[in-house]
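Dear Dr. K.,

Following up on our conversation at the group meeting, I've run the structure prediction for ATP synthase subunit a from Motilibacter peucedani. I'm pasting the input sequence below exactly as I used it, so you can double-check it against your construct before we proceed with anything downstream. Let me know if the numbering doesn't match what you have in your notebook.
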Amino acid sequence: MSAQLLASAPGFEAPGVEDFWQPFAGDGAWALTRASIVMVLSVVVLVAVLVAVTRKLTLVPSRTQFMAEGTYSLVRNGLGREIIGSHDFLRFVPLLFSLFTIILLSNVLAIVPFVQFPTMSRIGFPAALTLVVFVVYHFVGIKNKGVVNYFKGLVPAGVTGALVVPIFLLELITDLFTRPVTLALRLFGNMFAGHILLLLFVTGADYMLRTADSGVLHVLSVGPFLGAFVMTAFELLVEVLQAYIFTLLAALYIAGSLADEH
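The predicted structure tokens came back this morning:
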């Protein structure tokens, strides 16, 4: 009912794609955008926290040290060791830890007051992180096996005859196209859609309460406000999960490139 009344009320404009394009200076590809500033802020905060924690390590950890060690342990043991294997995982821990923490912090900053912008809702950032993962897992696979053996490993053992060529082509498309595209789009799509929905609840509730002339809309604005609160809590869960899933898939792709068959 509130949605119908809101839709019929004059003056309300639903948020759209343009609300995510907020340049501070310049225009086009080289514009200084809010997303860029939030990403720089994420890096600065992350580096400052990690440097501060590692300089004052104590036997009985502080709350910050406990959280930092817990995050490192999750990535090192839960993702690195368990997925890549105890023989090779250690050299990839810095990459996995960097991916997880920078995505997690960037995502969480999107619901922090006065920041409130999802950096990963701009496709350039997930695409850049995906490009790093893409280069790493192909590089280590080719370095480990050689070019010919690496691509021969795309065909599972036991596949022979006429099936070899189509299976090879399908696996090649998966390796070179499907994996990187879905890795970037999954993170981008979740952050973009979640914050469009959150923005819709907040702007709708604000319009119903402060701008609309109808007393009924004033009362019904409680619904969108509660929806915005619930969506914020749900968005926090999505932000954490997306950071974990991106890092998990990066570890899986690296493990696959090191395996005999991938």
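Two things stood out to me. Residues 31-260 form one domain. The mean pLDDT is 86.

Best regards,
J.T.
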